[in-house]
């Protein structure tokens, strides 16, 4: 009957996640309803599915851990505090790594470094891709053709291989990694922004804005962008997941965030040998990566459902 043990753990995890989602939904709706203008927000929060509430709760926890990492972690992320591969104890909750650094502290600081860098990279990729995509759709002609062909060429190269090649040439540093991943992922954002905007620029209200003599940037900012916001917001969440996983993969391969800066991908690599001794420590940073990815996808699914106008 030992095969039933994993099922029990899964059932317990699902129940805990549902309870966390229900608690977050109740507290958030109560806080929103307490404000003068929060009645509509409170109704939306009460109608939120438990999966989305769980996702938002997880994102909130990650954000708080990242912001208050120096106060949560008992040691510095670079501080050598003991011997190599010390076991879990009251002093070192998750033991130490191959250099004697506290793994719990590095896991906490990894939330700030990995998630923060992923967020900055996603914002840069999204800004570049959305701007060029909307511009290509609004202007059309040769500009649309040139930008689209450049994007097609870049997208024809596998993203991870392209990132590894560029980082090998430029050198593995955080600024180079942000630029490289933002460049690669901006092509995906460009394709979506252009496709959505192409359906909008032919609408009557856009033509009316042109006849009124409004400039190109004003048309994009006031007519096209607001009507393309829903799919772009959903794409931002999905793109963050891809960027987050790309950074972790590059760090695992040694070309991402460089030591001694704490990062979940490099933590999996550094502690991978412990798996052979039955130590679950390498699964903790891997689980942190997977949990945030699932949480963001839950929230994105909810937002897409709301934007679609479909009813339960």
Describe the protein in words.
The chain is mostly helical. Helix content is 73%, strand content 0%. It is built from 13 helices and no strands. α5 runs antiparallel to α6, α5 packs across α10 and α6 packs across α8. The protein is globular and about 75 Å long.
Main attributes?
312 residues; mainly alpha; 73% helix; 0% strand; globular; disordered N terminus
Number of helices: 13
> Low-confidence segments, ≥5 residues, pLDDT <50?
1-5
Kindly provide the radius of gyration, computed on alpha-carbon positions and rounded to a whole number of angstroms: 23 Å
Global shape: globular
Order of helices and strands: HHHHHHHHHHHHH
N- to C-terminal distance: 39 Å
**Overall residue-averaged pLDDT value:** 82
- Describe the largest sheet: none
The proportion of strand residues reads under 5%
Structural class: mainly alpha
Let me know the number of strands.
Answer: 0
Helix content: over 70%
In short:
The chain has helices at residues 4-33, 39-46, 50-67, 69-72, 103-139, 141-155, 159-170, 174-200, 204-211, 216-227, 229-253, 264-270, 283-308. The chain has 312 residues and is an all-alpha fold.
């Amino acid at each position: 009957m030992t095969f039933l043990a994993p099922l029990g753990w899964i059932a317990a995890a699902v129940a805990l996640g549902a309870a966390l989602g229900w608690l977050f939904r109740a507290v958030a709706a109560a806080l929103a309803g307490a404000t003068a203008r929060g009645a509509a927000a409170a109704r939306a929060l009460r109608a939120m599915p438990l999966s989305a509430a769980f996702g938002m709760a997880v994102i909130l926890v990650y954000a708080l851990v990242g912001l208050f990492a120096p106060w949560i972690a008992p040691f510095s992320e670079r501080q050598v505090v003991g011997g190599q591969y010390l076991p879990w104890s009251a002093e070192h909750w998750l033991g130490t790594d191959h250099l004697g650094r506290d793994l719990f502290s590095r896991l906490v600081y990894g939330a700030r470094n990995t998630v923060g860098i992923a967020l900055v990279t996603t914002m840069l990729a999204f800004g570049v891709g959305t701007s060029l995509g909307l511009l290509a759709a609004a202007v059309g002609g040769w500009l649309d053709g040139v930008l689209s062909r450049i994007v097609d060429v870049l997208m024809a190269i596998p993203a991870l291989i392209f990132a590894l090649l560029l980082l090998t040439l430029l050198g593995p540093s955080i600024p180079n990694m942000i630029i490289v991943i933002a460049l690669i992922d901006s092509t995906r954002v460009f394709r979506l922004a252009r496709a959505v905007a192409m359906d909008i620029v032919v609408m009557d209200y856009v033509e009316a804005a042109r006849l009124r003599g409004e400039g190109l940037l004003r048309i994009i900012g006031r007519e096209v962008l607001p009507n393309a916001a829903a799919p772009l917001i959903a794409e931002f969440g999905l793109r963050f997941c891809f960027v987050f996983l790309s950074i972790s993969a590059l760090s695992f391969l040694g070309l991402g965030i460089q030591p001694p800066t704490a990062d979940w991908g490099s933590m999996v690599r550094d502690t991978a040998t412990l798996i052979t001794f039955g130590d679950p420590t390498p699964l903790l940073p891997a689980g942190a990566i997977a949990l945030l990815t699932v949480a963001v996808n839950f929230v994105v699914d909810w937002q897409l459902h709301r934007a679609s106008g479909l009813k339960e």
